[in-house]
Amino acid sequence: MNINSITITGRLVNDPELTYIGEKSTPKTVFKIAVNRIGTDKTDFVPIEVFGAQADNCQKYLVKGQEAGVVGQLRIDTWQKDGNWNSRTYVSANNVQFGNKPGGKPEGNQEIVVTNNIQSGAGGKREEEPEEIPF
Predict the structure, then answer these.
(1) Region 51-63: what's the mean pLDDT?
(2) How far apart (Å, rounded) are the C-alpha atoms in residues 120 and 43?
(3) Phi/psi of residue 81, nearest 5 degrees
(4) Contact by Cβ (8 Å): 62, 71
(5) What is the pTM of this model?
(6) How many whole angstroms separate alpha carbon 35 and alpha carbon 73?
(7) pLDDT value at 9 more than 80
(8) Would strands 6-12 and 67-81 be described as parallel, antiparallel, or unpaired?
(9) pLDDT per residue as tens digits for the range 58-67
(10) Nearest Cα to Cα of residue 31 among 40, 18, 22
(11) Are strands 43-51 and 67-81 parallel, antiparallel or unpaired?
């Protein structure tokens, strides 16, 4: 059995950065989330990559210091340069939940769920897609 699923919550370390990649100019947003380690005072700074319409929304609505939850897959890229092996670990996001802005005060209905790659259920309706998007 192979399962690659990761769920993290924390606060954004930086404002999301939007770029466009490939021939189709696919939106790609990158940011880091600070995640506290359980039982210690150490913090991990986890790089996140988001693609497509979700990337646009993350760039528009997320800001440094804001709470966010991410569900995705752990990715490890490896390559060789000048005879040395290098690696990079990050989360490729499928679902991003927007939490409170810095200061901890929600602005109305602040939780926004943005998903990628939603699969249809037996009835053909995309189960995780909200009926109304609050923006």
Answers:
(1) 95
(2) 37
(3) -140, 130
(4) no
(5) 0.74
(6) 16
(7) yes
(8) antiparallel
(9) 999 999 999 9
(10) 18
(11) unpaired
